[in-house]
Design a protein that fits this description.
Elements lengths: L2 H4 L4 H24 L6 H21 L11
């Protein structure tokens, strides 16, 4: 999932995606404790996709991004 694709979505759609991904990540973590996952790298990709969505949401809200500096 690319950030440029996410920027085209509305904030409501982004929040829905984050919620769905968090739910999937929760289920994967539960399975990880009891059995072997078919694709263990899915946890990493979910974590990164969630961060990507939350960054785009923050951009759309107009909040400053941590670590960003303004040029004077």
């Amino acid at each position: 999932m690319k950030a440029s694709d996410l920027r085209e979505l509305t904030p409501e759609e982004l929040q829905r995606r984050v919620r769905d991904m968090r739910e999937e990540m929760f289920k994967l973590r539960l399975r990880l404790g009891t059995e072997e996952l078919p694709n263990p790298l899915r946890l990493r990709s979910l974590r990164r996709d969630i961060a990507r969505c939350e960054t785009v949401l923050r951009e759309k809200a107009g909040a400053p991004v941590a670590g960003a500096t303004e040029k004077k």
